[in-house]
Design brief:
The structure holds two protein chains of two kinds. Helices cover 77% and strands 1% of the residues of chain A. Chain A has helices spanning 3-26, 34-47, 58-81, 94-107, 114-128, 131-140, 145-172, 177-208, and one strand spanning 174-175. Chain A is globular and about 45 Å long. Chain B is rod-shaped, with a radius of gyration of 8 Å. Chain B contains no helices and one strand. Classes of the chains: A mainly alpha, B mainly beta. The A-B interface holds A 5, 9, 12, 50, 54, 56-57, 60, 63-64, 67, 110, 119, 161, 165, 168-169, 173-179 and B 1-10. β1 of chain A pairs parallel with β1 (2-3) of chain B, so a sheet runs across the interface.
Chain lengths: 210, 10
């Protein structure tokens, strides 16, 4: 376990806490893509099937349980605060992402078994799952600051996994090509957002300094 | 390098 992975995991954890905090304090699901959040439930459930047959560490188990339970809780919260009358910006055809991830999982996997295909599927789906959320952000125009912090923390998590993989390559001499390529894809999906975030949030904060 | 899945990651 290296510093990049720990920071990445913490960033992932914080992103979910920000999201839960934002939705429960405003009692509103506005600006949050239910499609993206539902996709994360599928991501975590399909990836963490190994909870049943592989023990890595207490940390690993607790984090997996946290991600599964919190993602389901978020979908529950969003459904509770969703107003049917509201005009929805959550229009991205999410089934393309599911379909594409499934095809990629059939092509790129370490073994043609249900568990391995679902594991690969979860990585590909995760790498593009934020797209409906980015579409909502783009269509809404003005976003809540917390929403942008949430997306940033979530993007930072996979970006931090990249130095983690480089570090592991040099220290352990091993590489997981599916995780690495899908992880890089995920970071590319975020790159446009990172740039806008930097321009709007980071520069504005600096601007306020005396 | 060896290609080994990172099943210890999240």
């Amino acid at each position: 376990m290296n510093i990049f992975r720990i920071l990445g995991d913490i960033s992932h954890l914080i992103s979910i806490l920000i999201l839960i905090h934002a939705v429960s304090t405003t009692k509103s699901a506005q600006g949050i893509s239910l499609k993206t959040q539902a996709a994360y439930v599928v991501v975590f459930v399909s990836r963490y099937l190994d909870l049943f047959f592989r023990y890595v560490s207490l940390y690993n188990t607790l984090m997996k349980l946290f991600f599964i339970v919190s993602s389901i809780y978020v979908v529950f919260l969003l459904n509770r605060y969703k107003k049917n009358s509201e005009k929805t910006n959550d229009i991205f055809p999410v089934w393309y992402l599911f379909g594409g991830a499934f095809v990629f999982a059939l092509i790129f996997n370490y073994e043609f078994s249900i568990v391995e295909i679902l594991w690969s599927f979860s990585l590909w789906l995760e790498s593009v799952a934020i797209i409906p959320q980015l579409v909502v952000l783009q269509r809404t125009g003005e976003a809540q600051l917390l929403t942008t912090h949430y997306i940033f923390a979530l993007g930072l998590y996979r970006a931090l996994y990249i130095p983690n993989w480089i570090y592991r390559y040099y220290t352990e001499g091993r590489m997981d090509k599916i995780a690495v390529i899908s992880g890089i894809l995920q970071t590319i999906v975020y790159s446009d957002f990172f740039y806008i975030y930097y321009k709007k949030v980071v520069k504005n904060l600096k601007f306020k300094l005396p | 390098f060896k290609v080994i899945p990172f099943k210890d990651e999240l």
